[in-house]
Write a structure and sequence with these properties.
Radius of gyration: 20 Å
Organism: Amycolatopsis cynarae
Protein name: TetR/AcrR family transcriptional regulator
Number of strands: 0
Pfam families: TetR_C_13 (PF16925), TetR_N (PF00440)
Keywords: DNA-binding, Transcription, Transcription regulation
Largest sheet: none
Helix content: 55-70%
Strand content: under 5%
């Protein structure tokens, strides 16, 4: 007996990777279905059959981006060292010219039509998850007595989250890895102001 249905004439993972890079480079709004089918080497019916819709494809592409380019916090070391390495690893990836610059989760939904509000909220939720992981690492440091209980956790999360997102914009504008790492070094020099290390004014 012959198999039921027709086998897909394309590699789904390869097609998803091409869609991810296109969304990363052009953003959700700037990527049309025609752009996607051309880049992925498939027709519209095949795209819908494999992924469901443009938005569903985008969700999968973001998931793939997270698996391939997402950065967690390294095991061991202090919170300061972990945050510094988290930012440095992100900066290196943002400036890597082997793929589109910056962070897909930051850049692919900056501009959006009202009809695509669900895409904006999806990306916003992913960014919040990323910052919650930063908060969780700082909470561990507080529990361990590494940083004081009086630390302004909200302020630290906002500040280092803003640095992370700003690095992405700078990379998009052509900043080099060296320039981004310099920003990280400057940002980490602000750490004592948050944790009020001995000899540093709290102002």
């Amino acid at each position: 007996m012959s198999p039921r249905g027709r086998p897909r004439a394309f590699d789904r993972d390869e097609a998803l990777d091409k869609a991810m890079r296109l969304f990363w480079e052009r953003g959700y709004e700037g990527t049309s279905l025609a752009d996607l089918t051309t880049a992925m080497g498939i027709n519209s019916p095949s795209l819908y059959a494999a992924f469901g819709s443009k938005e569903a494809l985008f969700h999968e592409a973001v998931g793939r981006y997270g698996r391939e380019f997402g950065h967690g916090f390294p095991e061991g070391g202090t919170a300061r060292e972990a945050v510094a390495e988290w930012l440095r690893a992100s900066a290196r990836d943002f400036a890597d010219r082997h793929h589109p610059p910056g962070c897909m989760i930051v850049l692919s939904g900056i501009n959006h039509a009202e009809r695509n509000g669900s895409v904006r909220e999806f990306l916003s939720a992913r960014r919040r998850e990323n910052l919650e992981s930063l908060r969780a690492r700082l909470v561990v440091a507080v529990a361990a007595g590494e940083i004081p209980e009086t630390v302004d956790l909200d302020g630290m999360v906002r500040f280092y989250g803003t640095v992370l997102h700003g690095l992405s914009i700078q990379a998009l504008d052509g900043a080099s890895e060296h320039e981004l790492l310099s920003v990280v070094a400057d940002a980490m020099s602000c750490w004592p102001r948050f944790v009020q290390e001995e000899g540093v004014a709290s102002g």
